[in-house]
Design a protein that fits this description.
Layout (H helix, E strand, L loop, with lengths): L1 H31 L9 H22 L3 H12 L3 H5 L3 H25 L1 H11 L14 H18 L3 H18 L7 H7 L6 H5 L6 H4 L9 H6 L23 H4 L2 H6 L23
Helix pairs in contact: 1-8, 2-7, 3-7, 3-8, 5-6, 5-7, 5-8
Length: 287
């Protein structure tokens, strides 16, 4: 119990430390070995993308002060959830909890692409005209709240150890910044690395302007779900230097790269051709 209380008291410091550490590391890596030239002024995008990130953090802390860690402590105190009921050893429950929660994030990601009203929220993330470390934290506040509620439900059903929730949150944030990084990796390294973690080249396909490429590679941390459920695509048709990032009818930087426009994006125009469950969408050649 003392260990859980320590984690609760220092959870924010732990997460912020990893966030800024990984952000700095990936940002420096982008400067040294960029994968693609950026099309928009970096200062404008960073100011607004990170501004949205800090706004979301404030909203979450106001609505859910204890966040996911607090829900894990509550579930443990009530004895709710699979692992709280059976109480397996930490060496088993921690890695299994992290893997299951990552699988839920994969399913959530597919869901926000499949349900039109949720795609309206999620397209704030996809409307970024460039792809770099700040894209990994660019989400509409309503989607962030939805994501937290899904985490709460998962924790109540699963009953993961508190330390597993902290590890999961740190890994999720770190890998989101890594796999959204504008990073050049040697082809052989990328081929091996993507067997264990989602790489930038793997996830960049998901941000293609082509709808069938957007609806692939949904994984955030672990790459296995896409292969398991048939949503994996190795490379974009145009190649990484030639592919276009973003959404086809949201190309005005004044709207999609500024904070007021990002916040209003879910409420503008039609759903578009990206929602998975629409009647027809572009198929890859020879499919």
């Amino acid at each position: 119990m003392e260990w859980n209380r320590f984690i609760l008291e220092h959870e924010l410091s732990i997460r912020l430390g990893f966030f800024f550490g990984v952000l700095l590391l990936v940002a420096l890596w982008e400067l040294r070995a960029p994968r693609r030239p950026l099309t928009q002024p970096k200062s404008l995008r960073w100011l607004n993308n990170l501004g949205l990130t800090f706004f979301n953090t404030l909203v979450l802390r106001l609505l859910f002060p204890a966040a996911a860690v607090g829900m894990a402590l509550f579930a443990a105190g009530q004895g709710w959830g699979l692992f709280n009921y059976y109480d397996p050893p930490l060496l088993l429950s921690v890695p299994v909890s992290v893997i299951i929660m990552d699988g839920v994030i994969y399913l959530q990601h597919v869901m926000v692409h499949a349900v039109p009203v949720l795609w309206r929220l999620h397209r704030v993330h996809h409307a970024d005209l460039d792809f770099d470390v700040t894209t990994g934290a660019r989400f509409h506040p309503l989607e962030i709240i939805l994501s937290m509620l899904i985490k709460f439900a998962t924790i109540l059903l699963l009953g993961p150890p508190v330390v597993a929730v902290v590890i999961f949150e740190v890994i999720l944030n770190a890998t989101a910044m890594f796999n959204h990084g504008n990073l050049r990796l040697p082809e052989k390294v990328d081929r091996i690395l993507r067997l264990f973690v989602v790489t930038p080249d793997m996830h960049r396909v998901h941000h293609s302007i082509e709808d069938d490429e957007t609806n692939s590679n949904f994984g955030f941390s672990l790459p296995w779900w896409d292969r398991l459920f048939g949503t994996y695509r190795a490379q974009p048709r145009a190649g990484h230097p030639g592919m276009t990032i973003g959404i086809d009818h949201f190309r005005d930087p004044a709207r999609v790269e500024r904070l007021p426009g990002m916040l209003m994006l879910p409420f503008s125009r039609h759903i578009g051709r990206y929602a998975i469950n629409r009647r027809s969408w572009k198929q890859p050649p020879n499919s």
